[in-house]
Protein 1
Amino acid sequence: MIRSFVMIGAGNLATNLGIALRDLDIHSRQVYNRSPEAGKVLAGSLSCQYIPALSALDREADLYIISVTDQAIAPLAAKIRVGEKIVIHTSGATGMEILDETSANTGVLYAPQTFFRDDPKPFTGIPLCIEGNNTFAEEQLIQLGRRLSDRVIEMNSRQRLALHLAATFACNFTNYLYAIAEKILRKNEIDMELLMPIILKTAENAMKKDVFSRQTGPAVREDSGVLGKHMDLLKECPDYREIYSLISQNIINHKHRNDKL
């Protein structure tokens, strides 16, 4: 059983995961982070030592969590050698093999969710995608995952990358489109709150199967008049105009490949 951990990283996910493990009475031994300020804050929250360099790494923890940006995983993994202790990363887009040299037991714990360092939340109900390089590592991570959430899924690196891509479309891109909508409304002195009902309804529709069958709007209707008016309104925003045109045309193309509409 995993009773202790070292957190490598102090960003949004590292903070949420560290606090969630603390609340399960899993002991944090150390926090390492490139930025001392953030690292010391998380170490304070976890009541453990902050270390400024991996050369000071405590090698007696049960679990070592690398929760950093994707491009930082490999350089950090190259500095970690902990024998048979379990080493994991939390990325959706990076394969498990990047940890091969760190330990005999490695894995991944990926949560397709948006986290914020200043508003930590429990993992209850959040899917946790688990991969281990052997039966022991996988079983230990599954047990840990089930203590954190009631939704634990075994998933290989290719599946995890596909889920990460889908989440990028569903979350990151959608959030940016909300930001565009907010800017358009602000420019026209309209409150963003007026979009809340349609945003919530759209999210509700996305929870049902065959999402595209619920597509609405001028593009799926091929309403050239409305599309033209929208494009005219975006003349002063060429970047937004390009996004509008590309997505609208893709909706039309998708419609013609889908006989249900």
Protein 2
Amino acid sequence: MTDLRLLQNFSGFRAFLVAPPAIAADTLGSTLNRIGVTMQTVDQAKWPGMCSTLNPDGNIIILDGDLNEAAGLPLSDIGRLPPAPVIGLLGVSAPSRLKALMRQGATSVLHKPVQGSAVFTALFIGINEFRRRRSFEALLNRQERRLRGRRAVIKAVVRLMREFQIDDDEAFERIRRESMASRMALEDICERLMAAPAEHDEAEPMLNRLAAGPV
């Protein structure tokens, strides 16, 4: 599992405030500046095009909870995480607005009008909780990759048994030797064997080598 040391120095981070122009950002901007975080106000209409450029380890999204979910963020498939830590900005803690922020991945909240003393706390909790969730998402991704790999290995072994009239031990041994010779993971070899020919042109030559058996 990745290192989960808590961050407490946010110098060099960049915060993007996604809020209507009427939102007063002076207190927020000046407080962030004192702890080394620069802030940029982003127009809601331009926001979707910027999401792909965000750095999860150096950017912060401060999202006004009064915006509707149409201004939402792209979320990852497994962990449903936003592209960077999200701090919600709320005037009224209505359940509907809280739920909307949670759906967009908010891990901390600042109340309007923003009090300077609350900013560091919101960043500390929001950023570190986001990092914790990313760590678990990475673990789930690895487990999902292993699960897909096991299915591919089973299918590849069955294919070789059927095509070359060999038993499962011999089929697996041939795949293992091919993996070692090509310096590729066993699961990757099997996935290529089971892929459509248009996706992997090397599948056919690989099958020819596997058909030869022990050298």
Protein 3
Amino acid sequence: HHPLLFVPVKRIAFNDVTGGYIAALIASGIGAYAAHTSFDSAPGGMNDSLAARIGLVNVAPLPSAAMREEGRDFGAGMMRCGAFDRPLTFREACRRVERVLGMEGRLRVVGDPDKPIERVALCGGGGGDLTEDAIRNDCQLYITGDVKHHQAQWAKESGMCLIDGGHDGTEKHFIEVAANRLREAFSGSLEIIETSVSADPYK
């Protein structure tokens, strides 16, 4: 899911991590394609599937402030907004998210455990930078990963609950979703191999 090259490279050094991967791919004659931001924002992609797994209903794209300023298509944004399929307190929401993400005992949370949750925003992966957008859109809860200290503080001061489910925790379902989409698209004419290797560096 994540691109091998996040920034342009001017040389390939075999003795560093990225260079080693590039060399191994070239030597094996393997091409690599990463559907990253495109799959995060696509209808039925990463964030729509995350919303469905968590049990959100009436899900719609939630435009960021930057998108509004630039006049961009709101349907192309990464954030999603919806409501739980039944009324939940923040404590109950945390239990559900923890179970769905397989992050038992590993969530970082901000907020009043007894707060009723009605409007939920989410963005899988590193969505901490969109915390202010969730606050501005009157969400009672924002679910994402890679939240920075000051972003968590914004949530606390505004009264919005926040769940940091980790970058890997909120995106690891990519494997199953992408594999199923490819099977549907190629109808048995392409062999799909799903990795069983965990890429989460945090244990």
Protein 4
Amino acid sequence: MNYLSKMFAFLLSVILLFIVPAYRICWVTDQAVSKQVNYDTCEFVNNVRHKGFVSRRMYEDFVGKLSNTGYVYDIEMKHLKEVWDYVPNISSPDGYETANFFDEYPTEYILKDIFSSEEDRYFMHKGDSFVVSITNKSKTGSMVFMNFLGDNGFVSSIFTKYGGMITNEDY
């Protein structure tokens, strides 16, 4: 019985002295990377909101900053444009009423316009909305530790979503 208690104490000491601190270091690193990704995303979106366009250089600089973290990300951009339209309404005296809808332009549309036009820019108008979502697609150190402990889920702690209304048309 004394042998089993010594073996248990040895395993517990290995876990407490090596595995827990190593996991903690990986987790803190993931949190630092998450803060940096959030900061870079906010900076990019605010730049787009205040200029009213996304240029090829702005996008490539943003992707370069994200790649400096050493991880692979899924970058999703959305441009929402408010459109007013007439909708039939029998109860109205004119027979119609105005309603607003949002046209949505996804990442593929924005990138196609940036990389295929001669201006290298995707233009938006004051009052439109622009949203960027970032999700980590590669395994981090803390995810490797969790997989080692039996967790088979792939839930990244590095993700952010930021957006807002276009406030200026600087073109």
